[in-house]
Amino acid sequence: MMTNFYEEPVAGGASEQLWKANQDLALMSLHHPFVQGLGDGTLDPAAFNTYMAQDTLYLNGYLRALSYCIAKSDVTATGKELLALLDGVGDELKACHQHYIDNPDATGPEAACRKYVNFLLTIGRADLGPSVMVAAVIPCARLYAWIGRELTAGREVPEDHPFRRWLVSYADKPINDSAKTLEALLDKQIQPGEYEEVAQAYRRAMEL
């Protein structure tokens, strides 16, 4: 049975409140036929390959968005911790993607990928507080960590599962740690009166 690295957001913080407020979208994602097929191995390999190519392109934009979090953050220690996690998560996910896709740039980003990346980078470049930027990038890490846990909980993923590398990577400790670090950063930085703007950015990221 796979080790369970998943941890919920810290109780009492803004991150926990945001995650709970968006459980409807999390459950919609989990029960989407694509995600269920990914978990049970019945997903069309061609659809998976297209997704992985797009996700690789998205990941490059996401890592750029995370760099805005570091630049805007006034929490030096957490910023350094986040930078270290960026290196680890970036390497792990790129290795996972390269396992399936040789040349993701050959296809170019599709509309959904462009929309998500543009959303993140627009917030990063805007004159907004650091909490809004962090709130916009948390859902990717938190949702993937949660879905990875849900798809692998209570079982060992067979060696011959066609998407085993993906499942193992997204249920692994680095993804959970990245979510926890981002959430800690948000919980430290959020200011009175910011919650509504932060909540809007968080939910929009969940929708995308």
TrEMBL record:
Gene3D superfamilies assigned to the protein according to its UniProt record, in alphabetical order: Heme oxygenase-like
GO cellular component, one term: cytosol
CDD domains: TenA_C_AtTH2-like (cd19368)
Thiaminase-2/PQQC domain span: 23-206
Any single GO BP term: thiamine metabolic process
Entry-linked Pfam families: TENA_THI-4
Name of the protein in question: Thiaminase-2/PQQC domain-containing protein
Organism listed in the record: Perkinsus olseni
Higher taxonomy: Eukaryota, Sar, Alveolata, Perkinsozoa, Perkinsea
